[in-house]
């Protein structure tokens, strides 16, 4: 809220933004990884069209890029009674941006690193830890069965998911128990 008040007050005093933020090879649009951009969709009817109905809230205290695979995990887990002790491995398939070391870390040490750790988020979901501060708490992260389950999570990059800028690819999750996948 403070940022909004600051922005409104700054605009009242004559401050303006960067006029070329959407233009050129070093633009915000290029940094976001898209080749197609319709300026009108973003800023058309500025001041008369409001995007508030399009706002979404995060269902988990994690990076938004992690939500599609977590949604797949919740759907899979709701269809089968899963005993976390029986799990041998969990495979998360996603794009290259969220398959790097930060997202694959099975030993996140801080509340920030836990926000970006697929292994930690998967453990929270499968162990039924209520969404909220406990997900990022040091004490929760230090529980032995949380640590053990995090070690069973593997994150891999799917080539097709790397074309995220031109198509939406849903995340996926496979939970392996014994010799089968479910």
UniProtKB/TrEMBL annotation:
**Ranges for domain MmgE/PrpD C-terminal:** 60-156
Write down the superkingdom of origin: Bacteria
Any Pfam family: MmgE_PrpD_C
| A molecular function (GO) term | lyase activity
The record's listing under SUPFAM superfamilies reads: 2-methylcitrate dehydratase PrpD
Cited Gene3D superfamilies: 2-methylcitrate dehydratase PrpD
Q: Where are the transmembrane segments?
A: none
What's the family? Answer: Belongs to the PrpD family.
Protein name as annotated: MmgE/PrpD C-terminal domain-containing protein
**Which organism does this sequence originate in?**
Bradyrhizobium nanningense
């Amino acid at each position: 809220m403070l940022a909004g008040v600051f922005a409104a007050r700054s605009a009242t005093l004559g401050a303006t933004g960067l006029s070329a933020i959407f233009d050129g090879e070093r633009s915000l649009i290029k940094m976001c990884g898209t080749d197609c951009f319709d300026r009108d969709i973003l800023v058309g009817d500025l001041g008369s069209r409001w995007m508030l109905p399009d706002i979404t809230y995060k269902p988990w205290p994690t990076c938004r890029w992690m939500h599609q695979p977590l949604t797949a995990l919740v759907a899979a887990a709701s269809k089968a009674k899963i005993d976390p002790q029986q799990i041998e491995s969990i495979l998360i398939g996603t794009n290259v941006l969220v398959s790097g070391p930060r997202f694959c870390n099975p030993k996140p040490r801080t509340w920030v690193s836990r926000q970006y750790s697929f292994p930690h988020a998967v453990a929270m979901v499968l162990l039924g830890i209520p969404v909220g501060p406990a997900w990022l708490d040091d004490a929760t992260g230090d529980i032995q069965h949380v640590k053990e389950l995090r070690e069973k999570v593997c994150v891999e990059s799917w080539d097709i998911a790397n074309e995220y800028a031109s198509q939406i690819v849903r995340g996926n999750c496979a939970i392996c128990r014994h010799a089968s996948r479910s």
